[in-house]
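Record type: ASSEMBLY
Status: queued
Input:
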Amino acid sequence: MAKRFWIVTLIGAICLAAPPPKPANYVPPRTADGQPDIQGVWNNATLTPLERPAAMGSKAFLTPAEAAAFEKAAVDSNNRDRRGADAASDVAGAYNQAWFDRGSKVVPTLRTSLIVDPDDGRIPYSADGQKRMAAAAEYARTHALDSVEDLALADRCLLWATAGPPMLPGPYNSNYQIFQAPGYVAIAIEMIHDVRIIPLDRRPHLPGSVRQWLGDSRGHWEGNTLVVETTNFTDKSHFRGATANMRLTERFTRTDANTLTYDFTVDDPATFSKPWTASIPMTKAPGPIYEYACHEGNYAVPGILGGARKQEAAAK
Amino acid sequence: MLSLVALPAAAQATISRGPRTADGKPNLNGIWQVLTEANWDLQGHAAAAGPMVPLGAIGAMPPGQGVVEGEEIPYKPEALATKKANFANRLKLDPEVKCYLPGVPRATYMPFPFQIVQTPQFILISYEYANAARTIYMKDPGPAPVDSWMGQSVGHWEGDTLVVDVTGFNDQSWFDRAGDYHTDALHVVERYTLHGADTLMYEATIEDKNVFTKPWKISMPVYRRLEKNVQLMEFKCVEFVEELMYGQYRKKPANP
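Status: finished
Output:
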């Protein structure tokens, strides 16, 4: 397993590797209306986890040799033959690398987490935040399959991590297409055809009484960086345990022709002891974006819940 | 036609050209919405009671003059019977009831706004209903790689008209709440023409040899939403159909 590999390989590492130098100052092309051009199809899959695995302790960066060994182990693990001895175990373990696309590389900085602040690479939960997360986990343990509301938002085809926001890589199809027209940046997200249309005219946010799964985004350019502020979240999307009052700041910077560096800062004092920041490189992808009609093909929800009800009936 | 007859010819030409993009094309960017009852029934229809008694007047069908050129959709006889059966079972069968993707052209005349984000190579249309989206490729990528609800859209300019050829449909979407339907042989050609700054004339020619005796055409104006700070909002209706679709699987039924 990948987790064991991290422990075996990395325990005993003597010193912190230095981060590689930042890329040279790339000057992006401009759109006809003068925006830095960040258009195209991008993919944010990576083997680097959001949080630094606890076993890595204070190790913030891999050496190139460690990174190569980790990538090989992770890809081998994802590619392993998952066929089971019988039909039931085949079905239970059927998702292999042919389905998944978790990438084949760690981030180029070789950092051990996508989180760059705080230094330990971990989400800085407050005591209240930890308490709420624990209570939610306890509820999930005892009510995992009572009704559709107990299933994951992705299983319900309501919201995928790829959409967020913030937009994190998912198990597959972590693809995005960005379009720019005067006054707008639009991000079409392949997974479950969500679209974020971000106005750049400094208009006010929606009233606080209006809440949306993807929040309400406003953008502006700071030099070559698109800065997007998002508020008005619901109390149902709870990104990493955050409340509806989460404030998200995203920064998109094209750092070379094939890289869109995506940094985001999450601020929610009710959940986190301080704001935290992650950085994910998005890489140019060939496209096209496909239609992922998740809800229309959702056999998972009736299968999972229907199976649970059958099992209960059989146990009586 | 809008009443432009009183204007001098030069002024008419200026109005009908509408705004332009940097590359000189008609500028279709903006938030648009129809004002028509086409989603209830493409054909002309009188007002009628709705299928849900408790909804009373809220659920009643508003009357509409119809948007089909020649008034009647040219169904094959057996296909007309299917359409009628669809209508009779619409609460069970209309994909809109289940928050399924609307397909094309229905996405255009759903009673929700949509936003066009226009670039020289791609035109994104984002629909408020069900967060449906489609990308119009201005360079033909070849045959659709797979069938889909929204199809594959390939566009080109014919003068000042954006012509969009849509193929690669599955057989799942409907054209309206009246049971008008198609198979996966559906082929739609849409035409978008600015008529002044704030009106988009929309036409769709619909062809499906399995269902219709000949191609037929619908047309309607689409209007720019002009409210200050107007934006698309979220209509993630999946959440609103979960009880309908999955309520039967509740451990403790909500309405035993």
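Annotation: The two ends of chain B are 55 Å apart (CA to CA).
Annotation: The mean pLDDT of chain B is 93.
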